[in-house]
Amino acid sequence: MPAAMRGGPSARPTGQGAATAAARGRTAAPGGGLSAPTILLAALGVLLAALILILATGGRGARIVATVGEGVSARLAGAGFRLAAVRIKGASPLATADILRAAELYKDQPLAGLDLDAVRRRIESVGWVHDVRVVRLLPDTLLIQVVERRQLAIWQAGGRRQVIDVRGAPIPEADPARFPALPLVVGAGANVGAADLLLELSRRPAVLSQVDALVRVDQRRWDLKLKSGGVIQLPAEGEAAALRRLDDLDRASGMMRIGFDRLDLRDPTAVAVRPRPGGAAPAAGELATEG
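Structure (tokenized):
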């Protein structure tokens, strides 16, 4: 019988021997221990038994389960179920650093024993976050899916500027200096109701592009301060109707292009305009010129 060549193909088990070897290969991990999938299945079985124990014994069972859970977590961590990566979806680059800081996660943390509800609550405390979902991706990843609060405007009041969301709530972590494109709303209570007025102005980009700030007056109505230095006074009620009148006047007279010192739209039956010093008010049938 020819001798087997060194380094050549070795004999393969057949029949029942092959099946036994295959089964051994599926359950054995490198180094002779159990594989990670086998440990995971065993852990699930232990947790199911623990649940039955809690239902049967009450508080004493819960203490036993806590001890068992720690052991299971350590066993899974030993099998490679440790935190190696955190994936954050839905958050802006500015918000990501604050979210990671609040999550209080660290590399090689046992993933199975991680309290996902506690992580979620910590992330929800971050001002950027409207909603969040935290999911384990075994064997070594944590997924954080975030719905971020939309930044609406910069609110200036009491000598302080803050970024606010669409509900008017401040976002403490947001630095106003990083949001130069956001509109400015000024005054006590200006954060409340700013979303409705900005929505109306967004339908009139020619007007909005000339607005420097939305100023809240006596917490009941708005003035639009223009980049040219002019002011448009809006009524306490019927802001949308007043802006439509402004559209009509601008089409008829080019008022926004010519400019003015003050335009009073508070009276729904008339418009009063104060020309710029040294200038003249544009002609329009319903305008009343202030001296």
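The two ends are 122 Å apart (CA to CA). Residues 1-31, 64-69, 281-291 have pLDDT under 50 and may be disordered.
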